[in-house]
Design a protein that fits this description.
This protein is mainly alpha-helical. Helix content is 70%, strand content 0%. The chain has 4 helices and no strands.
């Protein structure tokens, strides 16, 4: 005996999917930023972070550490974000999409501030 289950997504769910897929651009931005500062600081693989001495001698090494940490932080939160986006998008697709897009934008600006040369910019977007 076969049982089938039908599930219909709301017509605006495409916006939710678009926001979810756009996180790949955010991840790419983080990757490029980490690579750029890794090259500038001359930190070779497989070294994951610059050593304290390197960060004291080269501001790019500190910025590399900040870029790595921001990337790692985004990747830590991404599964929870995507699950929440997908789940809430079933009932509230437009609100979910708008909030998802704002999360992506604040992560972008947080990373820009966190990797800047001005330490005062590091806490500006901390609420993300």
């Amino acid at each position: 005996m076969s049982h089938s289950v039908s599930f219909t997504l709301p017509k605006d769910y495409a916006f939710v999917a678009a926001v979810g897929l756009s996180t790949s651009f955010l991840a790419a931005y983080h990757t490029v930023l980490s690579i750029r500062f890794r090259i500038k600081a001359k930190i070779r693989h497989p070294q994951f972070y610059a050593e304290l001495k390197q960060t004291q001698e080269d501001p790019n090494a500190l910025r590399f550490n900040c870029a790595q940490r921001a990337h790692e932080n985004m990747l830590e939160h991404l599964p929870i974000f995507l699950a929440g986006l997908a789940w809430t998008g079933i009932r509230y697709p437009l609100i979910s999409s708008a909030l998802g897009l704002s999360w992506i934008m604040t992560r972008f600006f947080y990373t820009r501030g966190y990797t800047s040369e001005n330490p005062g910019n590091r806490g500006r977007w901390f609420t993300t």
